[in-house]
Structure to design on (107 residues):
């Protein structure tokens, strides 16, 4: 049988009791992320815009009839959300109607 000192037992009990009251961290949601601004240096480098219809299709590296963040393979989150996380811009949300030069078709 293990011999735990009384003081150590009280310390361990206090830690265990405190653990019962601590809430587990919640997952970050897209609405919690700051929106990517067009003045962001990374956004400028990737030619990001909030409105894909404002981009000349001829200037796109892979011209396609409809290229938006909502149909890009790199965007994450739920379909239908206006702002969603993107793998290219970690920690920021992009507009579903937006576009950038890294756009890739969904498989």
């Amino acid at each position: 049988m293990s011999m735990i000192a009384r003081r150590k037992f009280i310390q361990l009990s206090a830690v265990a009791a405190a653990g019962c009251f601590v809430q587990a961290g919640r997952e970050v949601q897209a609405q919690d992320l700051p929106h990517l601004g067009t003045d962001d240096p990374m956004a400028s480098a990737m030619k990001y815009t909030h409105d894909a219809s404002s981009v000349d299709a001829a200037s796109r590296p892979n011209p396609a009839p409809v290229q938006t963040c909502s149909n890009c393979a790199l965007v994450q989150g739920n379909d239908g959300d206006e702002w969603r996380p993107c793998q290219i811009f970690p920690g920021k949300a992009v507009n579903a109607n937006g576009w950038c030069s890294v756009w890739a078709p969904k498989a």
